[in-house]
Each structure stands twice: as C-alpha cells, then as structure tokens.
C-alpha cells in the first residue's frame, strides 16, 4: 500500500523526512518496499494557459497553440491532443524539460511548424495509465483555473509528495489505512494525533428503511449496514481527492465511487455503492447458486458456484461480496439515488472466492486481513457526509442494519517480570504501561500484574507473546540489550535413517548417477504412473498451474521429465537418481497423505563414453540391475536380494522388468520403461528403478565387519548342463548353494548357449563353483563329494543333462 507523507502529516506532527520515516516504519512495524517521489527527475514542467490555437496547415489533427507560461511572450507549442481548448490551464513541458522515462523535450519542427515544448497528458509526466481518469485517457490534462501560470505543476497534482510503499504483512491489516498508520506512528514517536471523522448531516425527509430492505446471512456478513443518499450529482471528484487516489494507485471514476475508495484508504474499511434505481426488491447477502453468473465492474463475466458469496436483489447477483461489484448496479452519470454498503465479511470465504476466480482487489485484501468490526458506523457516516458535500446529495435519517457483530475486546494478563525476562530488559511497570497507552490499549494495574484490553482494530493481538512483541517494537529493537544465549551444548549428529539416506546418495553418485531434484507436484496422470502400491490422489484445491495439481506417488516420472529436458537439448547420455518422498492415501477420506521416503534412478543412453580402446555401450537391464544389487549389498543386504519377473506395470516393458525383494519383502522394481511411455515423454530407451527407502531402512541389515583373507588356496570346478528353457537362473543357483556344502563360497554363470546342436526347448548353461576352507587346506575328496551332491540334486530337481 502506498501512503502519502503529506496526508500523514495532516493528522500527526512529523518532523522527520520521508526517508527517515520509512526507515523507522521498517524497523518498528512493517517492511517498506520503497519511497517514491513522483516529481523526482522531472524539471521545467509548468502551468500554462492556451491563449490561442490554430489548426496545423499540413495536418488534420495537429494544432498550433500559443501558451502563456507566465513569461513576457507566449510559447508556441504544436499539440495533437483532441481535447486542446483555448482558455484552459494545461501541463506545459518547456524546451529542455525532462518528462517520464527521462525523456528530454527539445525545440523541433513538426511538419514545418516550430514547436518549443509539449503539452502533456498525465501518463507523459509519470502517472501509470491505469490510474489516469477516463476523461483524460486520450488527451492532455486541464489544471485548476486558479493555478498560477509559470508555477511548477507538481503541487497541483500531488507530485511534490513522497509516497511510502508499505509491504503489509497478513497480521497487520490495521496498517492498510492512513488512520491505522497514523496510530502506529503516534505510538512509535510518542506524539498525539488528531482525526477528522465527518459527522453526518441528515438532510433528506426520507428514510433508508422506506426505500430498501435487506436479508443477511450472518455467517457471511458479520455486520452489514446500508444508507441511502438521494438526489446526488454524479460528476468528477475534486482534484484533492483525485490526487490522493491516483497517488495510492487507484483510478478516479466519479465522485460517488471515489468516496468509497477514499474512505477505504482513510479508514481501512472497504465500501461499495449501488444505484438504488437499478435494484429490484430486497438486498440479500447469501451463497451463490451453482451456475449463477455476474458481470463484474471490469466487464468480465464470472460463473459462480455454491461456495461463493454474493450480494443480490430479486433479479440475481449484484456483487461478489467483499471482492468486486457488479456492472448492472454500478454508479453512472445518470445515477440519482445511491445505496452505500459498509460491511464485515467472513475473511476466509472472501479469500477462497478471490483465489478461486483470481480476482484480487484492494477490498478483498483488507477483508482477508481483517477490518475493525466496530468502526463501520463512523465510516458510513463519513462517506454519506462527503456525498452531501461533494455530490450535493440528501442524506437519509437512518441506517439500515442487516446484521451487526458486537466484537469482544481481547483481554490479556501479563507481568512486567515476564516481559523483562523475554526481552532481557529492566522496564518498569510505568514504562510498559506507557507503551500500551500509546498503542491505544487499556491497562489496569494490580500490584505487578497488568490487565491489558486490546481494541478491536488490532485483530493480531491474542496472547502474551503478542503483547511482548508490541513492547519490543515500540521500545525499539535497537535498544534491546545484546546477550549470548544460555544453553546446554550438545554434540550434533545424524540418526541411522539420516546416515543411510546420505550413504545412499554417495553410493549412487559413485556408481555414476547424478543427483536430481524434481517437483513434488505433478499432473494427475504422471502422479499415478509407476506406482508400487494402490493409493488415492492428493489434489491441490488451488494449484498454481495445470502442471502442478497433484502430489506425486512415484519418483520415476519426475526423472523421466528431467531426461526429456536434457535429450531435447542434445544431451543423449543421462544417468540420474533422486531421493525424496511420495504421497500415498488409503482412501479419499484420509485428510493428509502418508509421506514415504523413496529412492529412484533412471539411465538413458550410455554411462561410459566411447574411446579408442573401448566402444560406447548402451545401458541394458543387467547394468541397472547390477547398480541396484550393488547398492543393496553395500548397505547390508549381501546375499539376501532376489528378483521376480513382473509384467503388471503398465508403464514398464513386460519382458524386462523385475520386482526387487530383500529378505522376501517387496522393496521396489527395476527394468526398462515401456517404449510407448518413452515415446510419450519423447525420450530414448530408458531403464529405471524405484525403491521404497522407508522399508529398506526398517529391514534388518548385516553389520559390516573386518574379515581376514584366507591364507589357504581355493579350488574351482565347472559344471555344464542342458536344461529346460523355462527354468530360471535363480532357481538353479539356489539348489547349487543349498547342496554345495560349507566350503562353497561363490557361484557364477559364465556361459549361456542356445542354438545349433541344442533342442529348441532347451538351453545350455555353464557355472563356475569356487570352494575354499578358510581354516585348513581343502582336499579333492571334499570338493568331489560336494560336486556329486550338486549334480545329483540338479538332476533330481530339474531333470538336467550334465554335459
């Protein structure tokens, strides 16, 4: 919110510069984004008067104007504005002037006619186009008739002011007004303030209650007041009001609409005005009906639903409550009778509606942060009185009360000992009481206990900690003593879970994979891919974009997005891993999903670049399976890992995918992404794995310990066999290990043959078996006995033919 330094000074005596004031506000209240001085960088822009004007001889839209700028002779300026008129005071930028965007005005000829300056519109001297009043949008601006010729224009347009741009936090809604800012500055500087709340003069012989009725849902509008002003004259606002509005970033519209915006800036209370003659029947505050539509003031049609809140008459919605009014009931030049609305709407309902329809207004910002529920009558009276004085309206003698909320003041007990203990100060009860009084809090002191009563305008004060913060900021954070914290020093460390997670990352990086971090939010389709367990979706109510609507239930889809990003930029070889959480829900009734740690990897292309002695080799199933196995073995599962082919994953290649088991517990899968899915992601052949890290952490692991290298030699024996094609290697190895005896230390498959001289339903396998006695020399008899036992059981189990 931009607040006017000159406006503040009308209510409180400030003897500091605007920059110093902004610095004080930043240290004591809320952040300050900037201090803006509209006239800064501008020069030689003065009040001029068009005393003569002729059409340009060589143009159908240019005019040759003689402009009196307070000098001996008028200045000739060529102007193309359609509204240029003789006798009007205008903004004249003389030769050598600097206008908006640091543009310099020079003497020049325009189609052969000498021009010694420029007649300016408001946007040409620095005002944003969206705050320029409609009547001046396409032409030059006319200054007041009493403006002194030759004077700088800045004081007439409010450009000699300084605008302090406050970044008001959600808890300090009271600072979204001039009055709220003045109250805070009064406490900070310990200076009195004086407000000018207009007392209403009731000049109409009519009553509001005779002209309108209201029906209000108290859940929507905690307080809802209306007052009618009859026989108004709708016209442009006085220049002083327009200046205050456009300096605050609000576009002046007409005197009635400007009164509501001016009141909002002054008091922090949003208002709205309706054309009484356009309303039909009773004004009702209610929930919208599904499919109900309204055309808002910005001429956009909005479709509403049953969660939205509206103001309506008998014909339908006339305003989105607390957000924006409707076009059909708006104030126009023909309006004669006005209904002012002053209300307190449920801030949560207002915020939800504003976010859903992406309509954020100054009014919704204030309602969301909370307005003073006890200040409505003063605001409504002040607005009605301004309508009488600047719109010649007749104010009715009563206020229509649709609902009224009697807010209870927050009462908090606190002691000086507690405050000083937290702040490290030695403030007396009198010092603390003085600070509370400066803030407008009521204080009752009994012994050392202070019973503090907080005004309703400070909706951010609820507990002792809030009061302590108020004392700290008014006393001055710079005045608080600096002390070192007293605490028990403990040695930091990681728990077992954290250690394993860190170790996992280092291992995979050692295997050649690069750490990637993907968004936890994705699309609903990608969230449901590569799922290891059944789960309901967790959708965001108000997603920031269509690509981030649902919490992920896998890590693989995010890695595939990363691979697609790289390969689209000609990086063909990509090897990535990610450790993070996926989000599972048992059913839709579960409020919050379970967060489960996973670790996943994805490899596309080759992990080694080709060289003169080693050709590049594309990744395959066995390479990524080897990475998974080596990772699991290294963290404590050596010899306890098994795999089972699985063709149930729709996103995985049915013949190149396997489930991963540890101790017989399912922990994840490994395999090739289905070619159709790879095509959808626009990536080459890609192999992935996804492991449930939570399960892996919980499973028992082998403690890694030092083992001496045996000094006794080992013996190797080979065995070759003809076996049915459908027999898996794991089943054969299990039999060999089980029957190979105590001295069998290793089994390796070193040959697989299918083809000539081998039946079509058979395959030839050859294994190397290593035997070793770690405590004595191994003799042939023991090895021969073990080999015979292995051969006998293989023939029994699989009907193999030993070759």
Detailed description of the structure:
The protein is an alpha+beta fold. It is built from 21 helices and 38 strands. The strands form 10 sheets. The protein has a 7-stranded mixed beta sheet. The protein has a 5-stranded antiparallel beta sheet with strand order 5-4-3-6-9, with no helix packed on it. Strand 32 and strand 33 (665-673) form a beta hairpin. Helix 8 (347-357) packs antiparallel against helix 9 (362-369) and helix 20 packs across helix 21. The mean pLDDT is 93.
Key descriptive features of the protein:
seven-stranded mixed beta sheet; single chain; 27% helix; five-stranded antiparallel beta sheet; 803 residues; 38 strands; alpha+beta
What is the secondary structure topology, with strand pairs?
Elements: E1 2-4, H1 5-9, H2 18-28, E2 31-36, E3 43-55, E4 63-68, E5 75-79, E6 89-98, E7 108-110, E8 113-115, E9 117-119, H3 154-157, E10 163-167, H4 178-189, H5 208-211, E11 214-216, E12 221-230, H6 239-247, H7 255-267, E13 271-275, E14 283-287, E15 293-295, E16 301-303, E17 309-313, E18 316-320, E19 324-325, E20 338-345, H8 347-357, H9 362-369, H10 376-391, E21 394-395, E22 400-403, E23 410-415, H11 416-423, H12 429-438, E24 442-446, E25 449-454, H13 464-475, H14 496-510, E26 514-515, E27 521-522, H15 524-527, E28 550-551, H16 556-567, E29 574-584, E30 594-604, H17 621-637, E31 641-645, E32 652-662, E33 665-673, H18 675-681, E34 686-692, H19 693-698, E35 715-724, H20 729-739, E36 744-753, E37 762-771, H21 780-798, E38 801-802
